Sequence to fold (347 residues):
Amino acid sequence: MNILSGISDFFGLNIGSTAIRLVQLRGNSTSKSLVRYAYVPIDSKVSQSDAKGDQQRLAEVIADLVGKAQVSTKNVAVGVPAQRIFTTVVDMDRLPKAELAKSIRFQVDSLIPTPIAESKFDWQLLGDSPADKNKVEVLLSSVTNSFVEKYLDMLEGIGLNVIAFEPDTMALCRALTAPGTTAPQVIINIDSKSTDLAIIMNDAPRLTRSIPTGSEALIRTGAQNLNVDEKQAEQLIFKFGLGKDKLEGQVHQAIIGTIDSIINEIEKSLKFFAARYANVKIDRIIVTGAASTLPEFPVYLANKFGLNVEIGNAWRNVVYDPSRQNELLTVSNHFAIAAGLAERTNG
Fold:
């Protein structure tokens, strides 16, 4: 959802539930170099709140981060959390692009869950429909005006110029896959509050979902089942994970129910994709966030679905000094959304 076009100097801003992250790149659409990246933790009670005082606090945290990171531009592309945005793929009549745009505007009220008068929407032509040769596939996204205006007011209030809003899942796909990738790939990002899933094919998401179970639920369940406090549970979970041979498998047993609830939802999404794209084979699963740092989880996924599982690299499409490789890979699982936003091409 571009607000301004043709701006090449900007940074990506990921306003997460427990941290704010930014990435600034420099270069053209085929090669972008890392200028700077930064993050600051934030209380989820502040980041998730609509209260005026909390919004002011959030704005101050962002302004402080931008200042300390010495970002050289006021232009910013902002991520929209998956649970705040509606994204779907619809089949439309095959029409010239101008007529297709009119048709979508005419029908959009029946395609999105919120009234069109209260929403902003964007669409992208994907290609031929797999279900009907006389139709085309269109990726449709919408977000409420109130959410966009809240972020606009907050960010403009600290002197930033918002050039685009984009779904977090779109940014994840851009950062974690190579440009021009045609084979379907599944992106799984376990965040603190949710697990975001996207299936990308031919450089565009064909299915996106936000599963309302994340690392906080894992830690909470682990703490209850292991009879320890949440800080201890977090340490144990991210040290031993799903390893059955560690601590007599106690950690595995404590969290496997929650893990399997996430796996079941992933399986439903894969079945839905397979039903629509009957002759298409998924190539691999790419994991990031807690999904990439929870021991044995990638192996568990691979065994469950019989697919190759790859640890995502947020910097795979970014040029940087080789001496920084270890530093950047250490934080990679936290920066895919911000990096993907910074890799946008506006125009």
User: Anything to note?
Assistant: Residues 250-276 form the longest helix (27 residues). DSSP finds twelve helices and 14 strands in the chain. The mean pLDDT is 92.
